[in-house]
Amino acid sequence: MQWDAWHSAIAGSHAARQMVTSLLALPLELDCNSLLPWDGIAEVTDALRLAPGQVLADLGCGRGGYSLEITRRTRARLVGLDLSPVAVTAAHERAGFLGLDGQARFCVGDYTSPALRSQSVNAVACIDAIQFADPPLAALHQCRRILAAEGRLAVTAWEPVQPGDPRLPSRVRDMNLARDLAQAGFGQIEVAERPSWYQAERALWEAIADADDRHDRGLATLRKEATATLAFFDARRRVLATAAAHH
Q1: Torsion sign (Cα): 206, 45, 55, 191
Q2: How wide is the angle at C-alpha 243 spanned by C-alphas 240 and 246, nearest 5°?
């Protein structure tokens, strides 16, 4: 499976993890598999407005680093879903290492998972993953379904500077979160550009593109991704979208 191989390569490379966490200003112990910098975690946490004991769903959780940090800060309970069994196993292990295994559980699945009942969670986070839903609008409908009344959603993503730009991957070129969140029935929608996240990501990809990846599968994997991403980097804008569910 593509995602299993990707997670295995990155998680197995100390050099890759050190480079990513350093350039995103993250602590090394945070098992990061996306591109949200440290200040972005604070913004997402604030947007979700979680109280202790409430339930956060993290869709496309990867190895769980971001949502475990949000859980640690808010004392919420966490359910994370990801398509990769390798990532889910790593997330379980990380929760245990952090002493959060009593507050967090991780499952293999996507936004259609039966583990997520209607109106069963207080907040949903989707960190740099909504573009992999097919289509994103369907995932946002499911986010609204599982959110309790007045529950909060936070999505970090990329949108095209020019909609339909053929330079962009198909999963990004038509992204419009304000439109899709409204169609999914959300209210209090805000989609804001985050230039500082954009600059942190650029610095990371440029450093990785220049890295010596010989004998390091994780760095080689990221270097290939960096080369592809930098070719269309300026055609995207970095955004944080937040919204509330009304029932």
Answers
A1: negative
A2: 170
State how far the Cα of 181 lies from the Cα of 246, in Å rounded to an integer. 12
**Whether the Cβ atoms of residue 158 and residue 178 lie closer than 8 Å to each other:** no
CB 34 within 8 A of CB 62: yes
**Sheet hosting strand 104-108, strand order edge to edge:** 104-108, 77-82, 55-59, 121-127, 147-160, 236-245, 186-193
Looking at the chain, list the stretches that DSSP marks H as alpha helix, in order from N- to C-terminal side. 2-11, 14-23, 38-48, 65-74, 85-97, 136-146, 170-173, 177-183, 195-209, 217-230
Q: Is 190 helix (H, G, I), strand (E, B) or coil?
A: strand
- For domain 2-240, is the CATH number 3.40.50.2000? no
What residue segments make up the domains of the chain, in order of their start?
2-240
- pTM for this prediction: 0.94
Residue among 144, 142, 81 at smallest CA distance from 110: 81
**What are the pLDDT digits (tens) for 173-229?**
999 999 999 999 999 999 999 999 999 999 999 999 999 888 889 899 999 999 999
The structure tokens 């259609």 sit at: 112
**CA–CA distance, 168 with 186 (Å, rounded to integer):** 27
Residue 169 tokens, joined: 């991957």
